[in-house]
Recover the amino acids of this structure.
């Protein structure tokens, strides 16, 4: 585990919009674990379902890989099937740190790490694509195009595993989940001030959608199976099968 996240603690407030810069990269593992309920379970689900749906001689993609927690789950799921993992992020700090952690996998040809905008990435011959808590950071109007691009690059029977923070159609439910999530972060040691400063910094940067929007997008694009694998407070993981 890297350094403890105290980016939003008192006296340390930049007031700038949130970005995946060097400062965030340094504390990212601690930050995501203490902020996202079910994060570790999402990583275990990725390994489990990648094993189940992997196809011989195909590619796995991890889009928005950060420090490579999902990438590691994908690598661990490979069972002599001639699979290449391609992991992509547009944060230089994240990709640089990731490169240092995965040297042997890169040298042995199992992993390709790319500094790239996933909106323009090529997806080819894929049996498993992962987008774990990333879609929420993309412009809403670009999300359909990205999922369409993934769909086109998936082989028949291939899967897309998506995790997202969601909001609810009902205001009451959204508010109640918001309070529970606040309690989750407080229990994990964040102060009221840190929670509120981070919320301000993420305003307009992390834009959630309701579950129905994710399901309808996947259906419209052509996925034949749309399953929810996990839901933990206002965070969910889905499996879409082509
Ligand atoms: C919450 S983190 C993802 C966590 C990671 N998938 C995991 O499972 O640990 C979001 C990541 O998406 C990346 N990202 C956001 N927009 C992107 C884009 N347009 N292209 C590539 N990466 C992007 C950020 O740099 C950041 O590293």
């Amino acid at each position: 585990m890297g350094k403890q996240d105290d980016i939003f603690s008192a006296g340390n407030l930049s007031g700038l919009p949130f970005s995946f810069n060097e400062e965030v990269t340094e504390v990212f593992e601690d930050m995501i674990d203490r902020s996202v309920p079910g994060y570790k379970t999402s990583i275990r689900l990725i390994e489990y379902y990648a094993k189940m749906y992997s196809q011989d001689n195909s590619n796995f993609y991890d889009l928005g890989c950060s420090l490579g927690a999902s990438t590691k789950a994908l690598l661990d799921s490979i069972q002599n099937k001639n699979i290449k993992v391609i992991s992509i992020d547009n944060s230089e700090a994240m990709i640089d740190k990731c490169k240092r952690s995965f040297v042997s996998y890169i040298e042995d040809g199992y992993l390709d790490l790319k500094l790239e905008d996933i909106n323009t990435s090529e997806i080819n011959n894929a049996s498993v694509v992962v987008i774990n808590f990333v879609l929420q950071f993309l412009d809403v109007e670009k999300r359909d195009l990205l999922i369409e691009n993934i769909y086109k690059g998936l082989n028949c029977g291939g899967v897309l595993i998506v995790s997202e923070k969601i909001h609810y159609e009902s205001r009451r439910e959204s508010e109640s989940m918001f309070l529970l999530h606040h309690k989750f972060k407080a229990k994990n040691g964040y102060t009221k001030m840190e929670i509120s400063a981070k919320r301000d910094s993420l305003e307009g940067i992390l834009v959630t959608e309701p579950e129905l929007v994710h399901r309808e997008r996947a259906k419209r694009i052509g996925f034949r199976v749309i399953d929810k694998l996990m839901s933990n407070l206002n965070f969910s993981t889905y499996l879409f099968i082509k």
In short: The two ends are 36 Å apart (CA to CA). The chain has a mean pLDDT of 93. The chain has nine helices and eight strands. Residues 16-117+127-242 form a domain with the Rossmann fold fold (CATH 3.40.50.150).
